Structures are given as C-alpha cells and as structure tokens.
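Exam revision sheet. Question 4 asks you to relate a sequence to its structure. Input first:
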Amino acid sequence: MAARVAAGTGGSDALPLLDDLMPWSVRPLRPGRPWVTAPDAASLRARWDLLAEAEGAEQERLFRPSRSRTPLTPAAALPGRATGTSAFARDPGPCPEPVRISHGPFDEQWLIPDQRLLDAARPELWRVADGHQVFAVEHGYVPQDSGPALSATALLPDGHSPAGRPGRIRPLYRRPGGLEPNLAPGLAAELSARYGAPVTAGSVLAWALAAARPSPAGPLVPLPADGALWAQGVELGEELLRIQLRGARGGERPRLPGGRRPYVRAAIPPRPTGLDYDADDEALVLGEGRVSPVPVGAWDFRVCGVRMLELWFERRTETAEGLAAVGPRGWPQERTSELLELITVLALLAGVRPRQDALRDRLDEEDVLTLDGLRAAGVLPVPASARRPASVLDHQEEGPEGQFALL
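Answer key, structure tokens:
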C-alpha cells in the first residue's frame, strides 16, 4: 500500500519510524562520572594513575561514587577487553588502553574501557563493535529544530545528546563480522521487489541519513513508492555516510573541494579565552588564534539547536574539578588537527543540506509507503526477537571477581 501522507500524520497513514526499520536498539552509555572520558588518551592514563595511587576516603572522593559504582564494586570485563574484575580499591591493575569513541554527534573523544568505572557500559554494543560495524545514533528531539535527526559513526558511540532527551543507538549488524543485518524481517525483500534492485542494510541506513526527520517518537523515515527516488536518496545518503565515517570502512578522509581546506592563520594560544566567528573573513576566532576559511555553514551547523563547533570548544576549555581537571596544560597540536577535520566534516554536511531539503520536499509530494502498507506486506509488526540482542558466543567473557560470565 502506498499513499500520499505528510510527515507526522497520525493514525493508519503514519510514516514508519527508524525503530520500525532497524528494530534492535540500545540505550546510550551512562558513564556516571565525567573523568572517564577525555579529548586525549594521555589524560585518561594520568587520571587512572592518580586514582590507583590514592587510598581510602581520598580514592572515594576522586572516584565520585554512584549507586551503581564505587571503588568497592566488582564488575565483569567488557567484551573483548582484558581488564580487572575485582573491586578497583583492592586491585586496580594497569590502565586499560583507552578507546576512541563518538561522544555525541561529530565529537570524537577517548574512554577508559573498564566496566568497574562505568555505571552502564552497554556490553551488548561492545560485543558487536568491530571493523565491519556502523552505528546509527538518534539525536535528542527538540521542537522546531531543523538539524539532522540522526548521524552515523564507525566508532563505539556513547549516544550523548547535545540537548533534549537522548535517542537510541542502532547497530547496522546484530552480530560481529557484518553478519545478520539489523533490519525488520522481510523489509529488504519487500523493498527490493518494489524498487527492482537489491536493498541492503547499508542502503536502508543511507536512505535514513538522507531522508529522516525528527519527531518526539524518534526519527521518521518516509519510504518512497518510486524506485528512482529511492536510488537518488540512497546515493545522497551514501555521500553523507562517507563524510561522517571520516575514512573508516575503506573510505577517504573528508576534504573540501577546490583548495578550500581550512588553515591556522594565527597561532591558537595555549588557553584560548573564547570562540567567535568573523563572517566577513570566514574565520574562526579562538582568542588570538584564527582559522580560515571556515564556511558559515560549518560555523552554524547545529544538532538539537546547539552549534557543534561551540560545543566542541566548550568541552575542551570548560573548568572541571577532581580527576576531570587533569589534562594537557596547553593547546595540543593534535587538538588543532581535530578541529580542522571537524570544520571540514561540518562544511561538507552543510553543503549537502540543500539536496536533503529538496529530497524531503519531493517526499511531501510523492506517494510513500505507510505503516498499513508495511503491515499488509508482513513486515510489521516486528517480532519481539528482532528487538533483542542476538546471542554472541564467539569469545569468553570474564565476570566479576574473575568468574566466567554467563551470556
């Protein structure tokens, strides 16, 4: 069944949610304490050493206990990680190698992968995070926000939202090795028959990146009745995916065309006092430092109403307490490189935005598949088993106090 339907329409003509198409999802990570993440790995190792050397009340103060975790709480090792499982206070062990994560949309940071330190680490995500996986991350819903409804990353995401209630994390595959696509059973076959071309988990994700719209219930994903429009949207979404993956999964690092690559025009001081934008010079101003050219689209790129460049800067310059205050004394060169790449990513995404808007305008005028149509095809309702994690038993996991973990 295909019908002409406006986004957000209720009743039997409602549009499908991403939750209908990619049914297995995981809630965002809940670290419980700010010092377990940092923009650089060296800071995390220094924080670990300080905590491990402290004792008694001082260690507890630095740890920042919660109901879920204290220095006396044993915990299982995260899947694929060889860490201590006894209480941290008794046997901290060496600092685990920090892992690169996606800290909310478009910000890459580092995390200490030790479940004794994390209130809710979401082990089911770690089990499927490998060189084949891509994660779709829903953004929090903010009324009147015109920013993207979701983003994609090859890194393990924490699901943090800049504003509003955090969305869900949806792995593209339910098992390691790129096995068992996270799609509603029968969806790929139904769409392949309608469009006359193979539909894969990757093409569904690409389409969602191009066409999804925010809603209080999660991203709405209108599916066109027309195969040519589907192919156009998938091609656009694949471009968005390449930009957001930043060279992962066999792609190339993002670059602006035509020699527009941003450069440091004036050195960024060790402690820039603020961030501003000079529209006339297309320059990002960090205290006495200047970076240009920075297209206005990159400067004004927002998620949940929050400017991504301002949020990135605030996270690296805000005043912190306790272990979270342990960090580099100045402005590391690596931080500048990360800033230049973020500017490039946001500029490229802003450049694609007009084509996304045009696609969504067409979808408002074209026939689309409704929830009734997907029910008639047997795709919906999604069976409960598709919403639960798959059994992943290809490696042993160590439980609390060194016991074998029962999965």
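Marking note for examiners. The chain has a mean pLDDT of 93.
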